Amino acid sequence: MKSLVMAAGLFMAVSSFAQWGDWGGGNNGGFGGPQNGSTVASAEKTADVNYVGDGKTYHTLDIYIPKDTEGPYPVVIHTYGSAWSMNNYKGSADLGTICSAYAKAGYAVVTPNHRSASDAKYPAQLHDIKAVVRFVRGNAAKYKFDTNFVAVSGFSSGGHLSSLTATTCGLKEGKSGSVTVDLVGDLGEYTTFSSCVDGAVLWSPPTDIYTMNPISMGGSGTMEGAFIGVEREGNKDKWMVASSPYYASDDDPPVIMFHGTSDNIVNIEQSQELYDSLKNHNVVTEFIKVSGGSHGGDKMNAKENLDKAVAFLDKAREAKAAVAVVTPPDTSAQDTAKTDTVPPGIVYDTLPDALPLLRSLGADPVTYDVFALDGTLVSRSSVLDKSSLRPGIYYVVTRTAAGRRDVSRFVKK
Questions:
Q1: Alpha carbon separation from 385 to 100, 144, 354 (Å, rounded)
Q2: Over residues 186-193, mean pLDDT
Q3: How much is the pTM?
Q4: Above 70 in pLDDT, residue 18?
Q5: Is beta strand 73-79 parallel, antiparallel or unpaired with respect to 405-412?
Q6: How far apart are CA 196 and CA 381, in angstroms?
Q7: Which end of the chain is more exposed for a tag (fewer CB within 10 A), N or C?
Q8: Is the pLDDT of residue 322 over 90?
Q9: What distance in Å separates the CA atoms of residue 155 and residue 78, rounded to the nearest whole number?
């Protein structure tokens, strides 16, 4: 009963400040406002799949498989906005707009529920979304998912959780001062699979909740404080470990952000801060400032923006495929898998992991093709000269005269 009362109170608080305008076409925004209650066009729906196995509604998801294309399907996990206050809102997760655009482009779309702030405090919600990523990888054959490309997407607070999912890949813990939080969790039966993603699309996202304009709950604190469990004053470290710019690093996946210049719910500086942090680490990123756009709504969900989002995902997927010149075995079983033996075709997390292969090549002539993360060929030479490269993340395709090809990855500091 207590959780029901708290949830009701949170929803009323959201209603009090959400931007309930722009009802035209059912596409209005609001930090927790309606996000279109229709369905995903041209897609077969599988509803209410429990991704943890605990029978809880807040741990269910819906799956939309494109009708007009053959699988396997790259995947986009799209999370609704609710100021972290709703635990059963997947049926309103921008289905007729953002999700329909993804499905039309051939992506399988997964819309999950997650625990609300009244169910559990951060990082529980991040654990939920990462469990969804692992569920997708663990059920690739059943649903014809192509786990070579799994992206996240989200509106408002859903964009916040998506931004954290993208920037915390490979990190087990988040630390700030004396505060340490678990960033991965152990939910579900697919804990041996990776919770990393290959791209992110963020719509009107809060990213650094410590610096964002506070969202009042009508005299009883803030939405952010309810989410974290404590209010901002005197608790900076607890808020920092829930902020994605804090985690930005060289090996983050490509990220695109859409934010309205007239958003009076989540200030546009939130996207700017994450964008700047990612650029400082040479991450492939774009920031689309939507002139006159509010927090959601028709301007934000205009076809031009939906097309840009799809094009960004397509480019990220093609870039990853461009360097995978051989079909690697599935190395997504662990976030930080390492090996001393080198089977052919594997994609390594760092260049040193490929050194046993390089030593084994001996006198066989070698050509090194170095690609940027966006798929651009940077250099091709018989000598791997890392000193000439700018800081960033690179793929190296090693080719021998005998026809062997292997792919490795490294970060140039």
A1: 45, 40, 16
A2: 96
A3: 0.76
A4: no
A5: unpaired
A6: 31
A7: N
A8: no
A9: 8
CA of residue 138 relative to chain centroid, distance: 18
One-letter identity of residue 127? H
More confident residue, 340 or 97: 97
- Report the SS3 class of residue 339: coil
> For residue 348, which of 301, 287, 394 has the smallest C-alpha distance?
394
113-136 tens-digit pLDDT: 999 999 999 999 999 999 999 999
Q: Are 85 and 7 in contact (CB under 8 A)?
A: yes
pLDDT for 412: 75
Whether pLDDT at 329 is above 90: no
Distance separating alpha carbons of residues 48 and 306, to the nearest angstrom? 26
Poorest-pLDDT segment among 83-92, 166-175, 292-301, 372-381: 372-381
Chain-centroid distance of CA 147 in Å reads 14
3-state SS, residue 158: helix
Residues in the chain: 413
Average pLDDT, the chain: 82
Dist. CA 269–CA 262, nearest whole Å: 12
Tokens (6 digits) for 298: 């028709």
Q: Which two tokens stand for residue 283?
A: 């991450």
CATH, domain range 2-323: 3.40.50.1820
Q: In degrees, to the nearest 5, what angle opens at C-alpha 330 toward C-alphas 324 and 336?
A: 95
Q: Please state, in angstroms and as integers, the Cα–Cα distance from residue 311 to each residue in 96, 102, 159, 201, 307, following that order.
A: 18, 10, 18, 11, 6
pLDDT tens-digit readout, 35-64: 766 799 989 999 999 999 999 999 999 999
Burial of 177 (0-12, 13-18, 19+ CB in 10 A): exposed
**What is the distance between the alpha carbons of residues 93 and 147, in angstroms, rounded to a whole number?**
22
Where helices occur in 111-186 by DSSP H, the ranges are: 124-138, 140-143, 157-167
Residue 249 has pLDDT above 50, yes or no: yes
Cβ–Cβ under 8 Å, residues 152 and 76: yes
Both tokens of 405, joined, read 């090809």
Residue 297: Cβ within 10 Å count = 26
Residue 147 has phi, psi (to 5 degrees) of: -80, 5
Give the residue extent of every domain in the chain: 2-323, 351-412
